[in-house]
Design a protein that fits this description.
Blueprint (H helix, E strand, L loop, with lengths): L2 H58 L1 H39 L5 E4 L8 H4 L8 E12 L2 E14 L6 E14 L8 E5 L11 E3 L4 H6 E5 L2 H7 L2 H14 L3 E7 L2 E7 L18 H20 L7
Antiparallel strand pairs: 1-2, 2-3, 3-4, 4-9, 5-7, 5-8, 6-7, 8-9
Helix pairs in contact: 1-2
């Protein structure tokens, strides 16, 4: 993305913010304050009932008292999340289409992907059995169709006292329909001490020593893998994690699609905080820059270029 295009998009966003978005913020600030008041009132009720149940349960069995207190806490969190979530969703449904207008051929959705196992199926991440999806953007940039998927993928095992939940990925998955004729299946994952196989693919060693220390590469076609994973691509992928401050980065090539997973461990594209006044451009400016960074990422990886 050249500087002129960047300036045009930014000016368009600023114009829409001051003319369309900002005049509506007072309405949502009133809703936030009303939501805070409703939460405090219901919280006091939950605390009162929880205290009574905890004291009463203590005389029956100390463990029941702990459970009563814990359940009161869970109910309180559910109520708070519900109140804040409704305001957040209404704001996104109102404002996201406006922000997307600043970017050519971009639209926002919060509809779950049709095939939630896709990211494990392509070998992008480890196995997961619990999924949560927030913001999803669908667009076309320089002739490249792409999806930006904000995902929280977890693996849950066991039950009761033996139940455990492990976060597989909490961040962004970028799926790009690349302009490529490569048909191989290649996976780039963070370096692991266990050098096994993934999706029945063979581990391949590359010449770049620095890249090898940070990533493991698996493929079913070493020749095509070396065509795709050039020295320039290695450098770009190596730096992506730094740009997004990701805990880990992985990549997969399959059926002319490129997947990039950035485990940021934070909620992105947010324009609302239940505990902060909605009175400025802070949230929108940050979300706009996060979206813009995805476009820069596509540029950075040069995925719009034809390869053979």
């Amino acid at each position: 993305m050249d500087n002129d295009t960047y300036k045009k998009i930014k000016l368009d966003f600023q114009d829409k913010y001051f003319k369309v978005i900002k005049p509506k913020l007072a309405y949502y600030e009133e809703k936030r304050l009303a939501g805070q008041a409703k939460w405090k009132k219901q919280k006091n009720t939950v605390v009162l009932i929880g205290t009574i149940l905890t004291i009463g349960a203590f005389f029956i069995h100390p463990q029941l008292a702990f459970m009563a207190g814990f359940m009161a806490l869970i109910v309180g969190l559910i109520i708070r999340t519900s109140i804040a979530g409704k305001i957040n969703l209404e704001m996104k449904q109102d404002f996201m289409p406006i922000v997307c207008e600043c970017f050519e051929n971009l639209r926002w959705s919060n509809v779950r992907p049709a095939r939630t196992s896709e990211f494990y199926d392509v070998g992008l991440v480890d196995y997961y059995n619990r999924t949560s999806f927030d913001d999803i953007f669908i667009g076309n940039y320089k002739g490249v169709h792409f999806k930006i998927i904000e995902a929280d993928l977890k693996y849950e095992s066991g039950s009761g006292k033996n139940r455990s939940v492990r976060t597989i990925l909490y961040g962004i998955i970028l799926k790009i329909e690349a302009n490529s004729t490569n048909s191989s299946h290649t996976i780039i994952r963070p370096d692991s001490l266990i050098k096994g196989t993934i999706k029945n693919l063979k581990r391949t060693e590359l010449e770049d020593v620095i890249f090898e220390k940070k990533f493991d590469v698996y493929t079913n076609d070493e020749v095509e893998a070396r065509v795709v994973i050039t020295a320039a691509f290695m450098e770009r992928l190596n730096n992506i994690g730094k740009v997004f401050k990701a805990y880990s980065t992985s990549c997969a090539f399959l059926n002319n699609a490129v997947y990039v997973a950035l485990d940021t461990r934070k909620d992105m594209f947010e324009i609302f905080d239940f505990n902060k006044p909605i009175d400025g451009a802070e949230f929108f400016a940050r979300m706009f820059e996060e979206l813009l960074s995805i476009y820069k990422l596509i540029d950075y990886l040069e995925l719009g270029q034809k390869t053979t």
